[in-house]
Amino acid sequence: MASEMPEIRLPDEMSAVEISAPGGPEMLQLATRPVPRPEAGEILVRVSHAGVNRPDCLQRKGVYPPPPGASDLPGLEVAGEVVQLGEGVDEGELGKRICALVNGGGYAQYCIVRPEHCLPVPDDMEMEKAAAMPETLFTVWHNVFQRGYARDGEVLLVHGGTSGIGTTAIALANLFGLTVIVTCGTDEKCAAARDLGADHAINYKTQDFSARVREITQGAGCDVILDMVAGDYTQRNLDCLAEDGRLVVIAVQGGTRSEIAMHKLMMKRHTITGSTLRPRSNVFKGLVADELFREVWPLAERGQLLPQMDRVFPLAEAAAAHARMEAGEHVGKIVLAMP
Ligand SMILES: NC(=O)c1ccc[n+]([C@@H]2O[C@H](COP(=O)([O-])OP(=O)(O)OC[C@H]3O[C@@H](n4cnc5c(N)ncnc54)[C@H](OP(=O)(O)O)[C@@H]3O)[C@@H](O)[C@H]2O)c1
């Protein structure tokens, strides 16, 4: 049972955006929902802002259902204030300004969060920026550093350089001493990525990215690739991956199937791996949060790590936010502001 917190009065109902049926952005509709109550070990957050991520679009289309037990509302990251504690949660959590990775339910005025998935919002960070950080930070940290074993002095190739994921990858690569090459679909996006700190940006529509990476690295290839395309990118990725290089796949926008030359993989001792964050256990996400808190969050606290913001939409305009993401016009993060 949730503990009584008379100092913070909570309404019974809240505004939320729900997926009325699988389909286009217009299926996102403003609704009234009961304010959820935290179970043991959970906290309730009054959401200030929620980040929009590509997986939310996939959930809206009906191809990426929420994992068992998660809210049916979209939204994988929030920033806000802790307003109620479930049984067993340290009372010191109440009133904290946090940002968090959530299993769903972010597109709402109140959201259930696990305290171990939170990071404290630094005093001088705006809540809209804090809301834009968890999903890409957890994803990039885990895939580039924990799975891809990237270390300073290495060369990282990131597809989708101006995506939410890509802009976070550029920032972390800069902070952790990696050379970062990105691909983007237009010259404007390439220029934007270079402004954000990419050492090289390749327009994948006008240039062969694999050949360009080999040129840039003087034939050696890159050490780690963060790939969100798969399909026919896989062999082209391997063709520009250095000996002992690691290819980490986080999405299959180019297709789920790839044919690769296994003898080349053996000759260059490549590793191919990949992961999806959302279905991972609470314990796993807590361990990533711990490492982020230790290794990365001090940089955010010093103002050295900030998200690249694209645009903030009011919650009621969530459909417009999804339409913008799907039009591919954005550079960086799209965020929703709660009423
Ligand atoms: N596995 C995980 O745990 C996890 C977690 C979060 C996100 N993701 C995935 O990561 C991707 C990025 O997420 P996001 O929220 O940052 O989305 P986003 O901002 O909408 O970015 C999507 C990006 O994909 C790029 N892209 C699409 N097709 C491409 C192609 N054929 N070649 C090169 N680039 C291509 C686009 O680049 P241009 O616009 O320049 O063409 C765009 O920058 C999504 O696919 C998402 O599903 C995975």
UniProtKB/TrEMBL annotation:
Pfam families, sorted: ADH_N, ADH_zinc_N_2
Domain Enoyl reductase (ER) as annotated: residue spans: 23-336
Gene Ontology terms, MF aspect: NADPH binding; oxidoreductase activity, acting on NAD(P)H
Keywords: NADP, Oxidoreductase
NCBIfam families per record: quinone_pig3
Name by which UniProt lists this protein: NAD(P)H quinone oxidoreductase
